[in-house]
Specification:
The chain has one domain: Alpha-Beta Plaits, CATH 3.30.70.240. The chain is 26% helix and 26% strand. The protein contains 2 helices and 4 strands; from the N terminus they run βαββαβ.
Length: 87
């Protein structure tokens, strides 16, 4: 599945969350990630994120799609982290 993940988390935990998310998804810009991920990997990511988060103040949102082709992405301004896939 294709996922866009967005988090809003306390300043002290941002580094840990960034490092975790980069293991599973492509970093797009501050607190925004996207990419293909399996359902099992997504569940692991969510569980590990919950260990970092403070549930009273932090949030993590996942937008899921069956395939990236169903998402029309338009970038205005500078693209922070272009996705270049070299094979």
């Amino acid at each position: 599945m294709y996922v866009i993940a967005v988090y809003d988390i306390g300043e002290k935990r941002v580094g840990k969350m960034l490092k975790l998310c980069r293991q599973y998804l492509n970093w797009i810009q501050n607190s925004v990630f996207e990419g293909e991920i399996s359902e099992a990997q997504l569940k692991i990511l969510q569980a590990r994120a919950e260990d970092i988060m403070e549930p009273e103040t932090d949030s993590f949102i996942f937008f899921k799609s069956r395939n990236a082709k169903w998402i029309d992405k338009q970038i205005v301004g500078k693209e922070r982290s272009p996705l270049d896939n070299f094979l």
